[in-house]
Amino acid sequence: MAKLFFRFAAMNSGKSTQLLQIANNYESMGKTVALYTSAIDDRYGVGMITSRLNIQRESNTFDAGFDFLAQDYGDTACILVDEAQFMTPEQAQQLHRLAHTRNIPVICFGLRTDFRGHPFPGSAWLLSLAEDVEEIKTICQCGRKATMHIRIDGAGRRVKEGPQVEIGGEARYRAVCGRCFHQD
Questions:
Q1: Using CA of residue 100, residue 102, residue 104, residue 107, what is the dihedral sign?
Q2: What range defines the domain where residue 94 resides?
Q3: Is residue 26 marked as binding?
Q4: Catalytic pick among 58, 83, 131, 134
Q5: Is 161 a catalytic residue?
Q6: Is residue 82 situated within a structural domain?
Q7: Is 78 annotated as a binding-site member?
Q8: What whole-number distance in Å separates Cα of residue 35 and Cα of residue 61?
Q9: Residue 69 DSSP class
Q10: Fewest C-beta atoms under 10 Å: which of 37, 67, 90, 144?
């Protein structure tokens, strides 16, 4: 029986690497996967899932108006979604329905919270609906488990205000533990 999975973590934990490995595992068995990433994440080009280990793969994209249920998945064995925090609550609900009505496992990877510690709406819904939730671990520069993010400016100073979504990698964000997150 298929189900909805959510794998969340702070940045630099290997989420995209794991997604690409899962895709490779299915395909090495002759099975078809459907890959999705957010259309707003253009760090490595629109429609590219890219690991910091320099593994890269083309992908379908979703935006706020995308309907996962309207797609023809044919003989797809698994649906893999990167940057799932950028999904809408409705899209998280669609993926839950898809897993249960079309019997296709759906594995989503994403961040849980933004740089202010606020939940991303897509992630909040995935945490509520997914039958299998797993935290992928990474560490803060102080050595503790990183669970949060801080946004930094060009000079490396912490930014505490601004829009929830501002695309950027290590030049704009750092994964930190709760203690470092609350230091001023």
A1: negative
A2: 4-137
A3: no
A4: 83
A5: no
A6: yes
A7: no
A8: 8
A9: G
A10: 67
